[in-house]
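**Backbone description:**
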Amino acid sequence: MRAAIVLCILTGICFAAEQAPAAPEKTALKPAVIPAGAVELDRGSYRFTDPDGVNWLLRRSPFGVMAVQEKSIEAAIRVLDDGDSVRFVQSTPFGSCAWERKKSELNASERAIWEQQRDRDTAK
C-alpha cells in the first residue's frame, strides 16, 4: 500500500517537472488603493484609467479595494447575421450563452451591438 502511494506521488512530481512552465502573460497591475485621478461613479465605486490606458472599475469593500478591468461589450458578444435573424453568442465565466432574434424583434441594446459589429465588419 505504501509503495503504491509513494509511486503515485513520485509520478505526479515527475509529471509536473516535465511540463514546461507557461510563459507569463503581460497583465496590467490592479490598483491597490483608490488613485487620486479616479472618478466617482456611485458611493464607493470609481472608474480609473491607468497610465497604460487600461480602464478599471474600483469599489471599496470591507476587505480593501476591489479592482476589475473594464471591458467593452463588443469584446464579450459576437453577432452572426443569419438572413432575417441575428444570432448572438456571449462569453460568460460559465461558458458561452447563445440566443437568436428576428431582426424586426431586436431590442435597443441588441440592435446597437448588431449595428456596431456590422459597421466594423464593412469597414475592414
